[in-house]
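Deliverable D5.2: sample structural annotation.
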Amino acid sequence: MKAKTIVMTLALCLVAVAVCFASDPTIGTWKLNESKSKFGSGAAKNSTVVYEAAGDSVKVTIDGTDKDGKPTHSEWTGKYDGKDYPVKGDLSSDTRSLTRIDDHTLGFNAKKGSKVTISGRIAVSADGKTRTVTSSATDANGKKINSTAVYDKQ
């Protein structure tokens, strides 16, 4: 009887997590629509962003180019709880945090040490087909870089 209860509890937890991520409009593969985007001088470009469920967290994998056109790849796994989680592969940040603002909007921060280097918002359209990222970054020289990147869901 105890084994059956434990198995049923685990199954319900997995279903709850699946339902939670199934309703998350950010989950999926997003490709940069460069013609609809506006990048500040010296901004990096994320050409492909993949959000996927990772247990009760989300894993974000980003491929793109840096300000000099060199390829970049970073990975981040965390929750939409505003806490800092480590980033792998990003020279401009050690940690990232995401906060859910509403059903279609996230706020984000990236930090190098304790200093915020990039902040902004991620908004997914009501139909779930477009993702718009507005960001403000500070480069190594203290120069502000504002960008708006538009992505199409694949």
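Annotation notes: Helices lie at 2-22. Residues 54 and 113 are 25 Å apart (CA to CA).
The annotation will be released with the project's public dataset once the embargo ends.
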